[in-house]
Amino acid sequence: MHVLVTGGAGFIGSHSVEQLLEAKIPVRILDNFSSGTRDNLPKHAQLEIQEGDIRDQTAVHKAMKDITHVLHLAAQVSVQASVENPPESCSTNIGGFVNVLQASRVNRVQRMVYASSAAVYGRPAQLPLSEKVMAQPCSPYGLEKYVNDQYAALFATEFEVSLLGLRYFNVYGPRQDPQSPYAGVISKFISMIEQHLPLSVFGDGAQTRDFIFVKDIAKANVQALQSDMGGVCNVATGKIHSLLELIDILSRCANQSVEVVHQAVREGDIPFSETEITRLQSLMPTDGFTDLSTGLTALLQYTANPDN
Ligand code: UD2
Fold first, then answer.
1. Using CA atoms, how far apart are residues 178 and 20, in angstroms rounded to an integer?
2. DSSP 127
3. Of 41, 94, 184, 275, which is most buried by a Cβ count within 10 Å?
4. From start to end of 45-107, where are the E strands?
């Protein structure tokens, strides 16, 4: 295998690169370093870095040289930015995606796995969320990821490209920047705890989410590249926690009491999430996934000392 990871310097990308290299698989990354950084990446003889943008067809085709498998993670990842500037978001998340897809096709790569998102489900009519639940995206970002899924289905059927879209749920872990517009609630809360500031809870805190540790996401990525599963697959733990439960666990892991301030419900917020992961379980064992308190402890340690 020789894997191209687009967005390899980012939050999920860099953890995936690490695990591929640990498995002795050579990696090339294509990244425009708009949100990812070189500091996220290890120095490794089997790692090649190409700086470039997925919207640039020439750069994408160059990056495909001698590549057998593609892990496509590069994207405009902020839901908020997609709401504010849909054309810009679309150019990366649909235009860039189709560039990578087409380059995978013409270079006859054996397999392409790409980042879809739970955002595809939007405000769903039913729970739990299995891959069969109808997509009802409620942001340009969610729609863009859904369009990715449809392009992938067409390229798989009509052009025989081996493809799988992974619908990530709420990812947390080291290297997620709490200041970034797409930072999740966990990295924000940890940053507040460190500063001994109260945590802002939007609404009553009863909303639920499936929080998954980034290293488990990376494991799923590596596994998916080596499988032949098609279509789309949820990547989640199958266990949900309310925000108040999360805060309770976080406070115990940090060994610190925390103050909570309730604020108005965030506009467009999804009240409940509940995940169904049967498909993921047919791809890989999920019982070894990091439980929330272990993941939070690891993240707290990392945040206190990022160089270790
Ligand atoms: C996640 C994704 C988003 C999109 C969406 C689709 C992240 C960071 N975001 O949004 O990109 O895919 O799922 O369903 O993965 N909250 C607070 N206080 C805060 C911040 C958040 O109470 O300071 C609440 C927020 O109102 C929500 C919950 O925490 O109810 C989780 O928020 P989030 O932004 O981490 O993730 P989510 O699920 O809304």
1. 26
2. S
3. 275
4. 47-51, 69-72
CA of 88 to the centre of ligand 1 (A): 22
Helix (H) or strand (E) holding 93: none
The 10s digit of each residue's pLDDT in 251-286 is 999 999 999 999 999 887 888 889 999 999 999 999
Quick one: tokens of 302? Answer: 């990392």
Going from the C-alpha of 152 to that of each of 105, 167, 280, the distances in angstroms are: 11, 13, 18
* Residue 161: per-residue pLDDT: 98
Q: Choose among 211, 201, 210: nearest CA to 273.
A: 210
Which stretches of the chain drop beneath a pLDDT of 70? 181-182, 308
Domains of the chain: 3-171+213-236+277-283 (3.40.50.720), 172-209+240-273+289-304 (3.90.25.10)
Residue nearest to atom 9 of ligand 1 (CA): 184
> Which residue's CA is the closest to the ligand 1 atom numbered 29?
185
Give the separation between CA 132 and CA 149, rounded to whole angstroms: 13
* 188 within ligand 1 shell (Cβ under 6 A): yes
pTM, whole model, 2 decimals?
A: 0.96
The pLDDT of residue 116? 98
Query: Quick one: pLDDT at residue 181?
Result: 63
182 lines ligand 1 (CB under 6 A): yes
Pocket test for ligand 1, best of 185, 214, 274 (most atoms within 8 A of CB): 185
What separation in Å is there between the alpha carbon of 61 and the centre of ligand 1? Answer: 35
DSSP string, 222-263: HHHHTS---EEEEES-S--EEHHHHHHHHHHHHT----EEEE
> How remote is the CA of residue 80 from the centroid of ligand 1, in Å?
11
